[in-house]
Amino acid sequence: MRAEIIFLGSGGGRWATITQKKPTGGFIINVDNLRMHVDPGPGAIVRANKLKLSPWKTNAIFVSHCHPDHYNDVEVLIEAMTEGMVKKRGYLIGSLTTIEGYGKYEKVVSDYHKSKVKNVVVIYPNDSINLYDNELIATKTKHGDPYGVGFRLKTRYGDIGYTSDTEKIDSLIDDFDGVRVLIANITRKKNEKIRGHLCSNDIIDIINSMNKKPELLVMFHMGLKITNPKSEAEYISKNTGIEVVPSKFGLKIELIDGIYKRIL
Ligand SMILES: [Zn+2]
Fold first, then answer.
1. pLDDT the model gives residue 264
2. pTM
3. How far is the CA of 13 from the centre of ligand 1 (A)?
4. Residue 137 alpha carbon to ligand 1 centre in Å
5. What pLDDT was estimated at residue 256?
6. Residues 43, 44, 49, 50: is their CA dihedral positive or negative?
7. Is the pLDDT reported for residue 261 higher than 80?
8. Measured between alpha carbons, how far is 186 from 22 in angstroms, rounded to an integer?
9. Could you report the per-residue pLDDT of 166-201, keeping only the tens digit for each?
10. Which of 11, 30, 37, 197 sees the fewest Cβ atoms within 10 Å?
11. What domains lie within the chain, and their CATH numbers?
């Protein structure tokens, strides 16, 4: 028994999305009975099939906010999760903006698709929800979408954190203190601060302010300006003392009691 995280991409932001030079399929977390697809951006369905990860088995979908590199394939995944819109099944968890719409952000999931999901949950920071015996707690972000959320998923193999798109805010320190694996959306390389997103120095500050640092940091949602993810990962690792790996299409992380294993 184990928890695993499989990455269907590494990129984010408009240029990575348009060019697909860094794929934007999100990632899948499998824990016991949970199979959750997180932020299924453009290509998620293609990438999942390419890795022979059956979309039919999806039983939860998490959409952190209302930007297409995070939500684009959500309706197709709902169709898979509901066995072709035949069975009422699964969870759709997302920000207010993605599920109901708010202001200039129109909802991105149709009422028709929502009608076949068993549990549709609009989630706000600090809300928690039980997902097949794992607890998901929504975390705060500061980004273009005012209702964006990340999460901390508490599993019996340890906690998995996902920042989603956010700039550096103090709450990230506590929200992810002590997770085993932290997936952080790092859009820019060192010394390139950018509004609404994290750069390498931001994540270094956040990790170094924690009481218990993660065992592993996965760099996710990288922009095209990160031309050498490996050297960027080494820079973050050197400055935090933890292992850092850039996400890559097909990267798999396994959490087994006490250890984690990385399979590419
Ligand atoms: Zn965004």
1. 47
2. 0.96
3. 7
4. 20
5. 83
6. positive
7. no
8. 13
9. 999 999 999 999 999 999 999 999 988 889 999 999
10. 30
11. 3-249 (3.60.15.10)
